[in-house]
Amino acid sequence: MAIVKPFKGIRPPRNLVEEIESRPYDVLSSEEARQEAGNNEKSLYHIIKPEINFEPGTSEYDPRVYEEAARQFSKFLDKGWLVQDDKEQYYIYAQTASLPANGNQPKTQYGIVVGAYSGDYQKGIIKKHELTRADKEEDRMKHIRVNDANIEPVFFAYPDNAVLLKLLDRYAHCEPEYDFTAPIDGFRHQFWCVSDDNDIKVITEEFAKMPALYIADGHHRSAAAALVGAEKARQNPHHRGDEEYNYFMAVCFPASQLTILDYNRVIKDLNGLTDEEFLSALQEHFNVAHKGTAEYRPQELHEFSLYLRGEWYSLKAKAGTYDDNDPIGVLDVSISSNLILDKILGITDLRRDKRIDFVGGLRGLGELKRRVDSGEMKTALALYPVTMQQIMDIADSGKIMPPKATWFEPKLRSGLVIHKLS
């Protein structure tokens, strides 16, 4: 059963939150962070992208950069830009976004910010669906160690729970601690503190009934946080198991509220084939239908949209080309990788092959069209989004999803609350 606890969050005063909050460290480049921070010395980028405090081109892995993160964190605390709460509590974080997947209508998802138990990650109660890389884990471990804190949360999903949904609805009708619209994407972010002892008890008890939590986004941060927790336990001769370092910060959302967008592919060449030869090769495993010049989006699982030479095509996988009983093989990312990218185009390593790139669905089909029409890419492939149920099924089976399969939106904003490990 899942173990969570409240914690004494470190947060901005209400009047400073919009100066401090930022996008997550891994969704923008160092130069983009430098530009977004500008002359704002209170921007969280000074802590999570501290290379911006050095000359352009400084590696984010330079030892000086980690030291700078700690220096900046101390500075924020000393100046009162970040203040620790007096009481251990939970927090509620709501995001409202208008996305194509929801008909561009506003949709709100309500997450509970908890201290998640590192031991649950080690035991597989906190379930993952992606592989992690040791170098990225080490980078996040260094950042956690030097700050002795989880500066940014990870993003979890949990099976819908009626008691928690009722509690979330009650808080949604109260005045939030923070309420702002982020300038980059126009999404609304709201934040409440859950300090009522009974509500704290309810949250702890309801999570304890859950057989699993699911990492939606933040696999490297989760792995790093669990490893640092285990490291600190080994180093403490008086380790009891209830120390703060045994927990890391996660925002947990009901699975049904989450939106997963399509994660699409753009390809540089046709592996020596002509356009006609490529379209002909596709017909072995797909029913190919010409759709004209208007943007065409896949309408269902196992249908793909292809953009080639200024026109759109529907590709519907033929019966027998996938196995509905295989949680990995049934995925459209697997079907497209096996039958198009690998079999026809010779692209076998999605992580490293320079002939392919990936475009998150928030940027729309227009971005696929632009990159092909510009001549940068030869063709584009749009996929139907993975479902949260598919992710949970794969995590439950102990298997790993193919690379570049999920794109969650909206992303969590960083800087609303921080979890100190001691």
Q: What's the quick description here?
A:
The chain has helices at 17-20, 30-37, 45-48, 63-78, 118-123, 134-147, 162-172, 197-208, 219-235, 275-282, 332-342, 364-373, 388-397; strands at 4-5, 10-11, 83-84, 90-98, 106-117, 126-127, 149-150, 154-158, 178-181, 188-194, 213-217, 247-254, 260-261, 263-267, 286-292, 303-308, 311-317, 356-360, 379-383, 407-408, 419-420.
**Stretches with pLDDT under 50, minimum 5 residues:** none
| Strand coverage percent | 15-25%
Total helical segments:
13
What general form does the structure show? globular
Question: How many strand segments?
Answer: 21
Largest beta-sheet characterization = 9 strands, mixed
| Alpha carbon gap, first and last residue | 25 Å
Which value, in Å, is the CA radius of gyration?
Answer: 23 Å
Q: Helix fraction?
A: 25-40%
- What structural category characterises the helix and strand content? alpha+beta
Average residue pLDDT: 94
Q: Could you explain the architecture of this structure?
A:
- By secondary structure, the chain is an alpha+beta fold.
- Helix content is 31%, strand content 24%.
- The protein has 13 helices and 21 strands.
- Strands 1, 4, 5, 6, 8, 9, 10, 11 and 12 form a nine-stranded mixed beta sheet that branches. It has a six-stranded antiparallel beta sheet with strand order 15-17-16-19-14-18, sandwiched between helices.
- A hairpin with a 6-residue loop joins strand 9 and strand 10.
- Helix 4 packs parallel to helix 6.
Question: Which helices and strands, and how do they pair?
Answer:
Elements: E1 4-5, E2 10-11, H1 17-20, H2 30-37, H3 45-48, H4 63-78, E3 83-84, E4 90-98, E5 106-117, H5 118-123, E6 126-127, H6 134-147, E7 149-150, E8 154-158, H7 162-172, E9 178-181, E10 188-194, H8 197-208, E11 213-217, H9 219-235, E12 247-254, E13 260-261, E14 263-267, H10 275-282, E15 286-292, E16 303-308, E17 311-317, H11 332-342, E18 356-360, H12 364-373, E19 379-383, H13 388-397, E20 407-408, E21 419-420
Parallel strand pairs: 6-11, 8-12
Antiparallel strand pairs: 1-5, 2-3, 4-5, 4-10, 5-12, 7-21, 8-11, 9-10, 13-20, 14-18, 14-19, 15-17, 16-17, 16-19
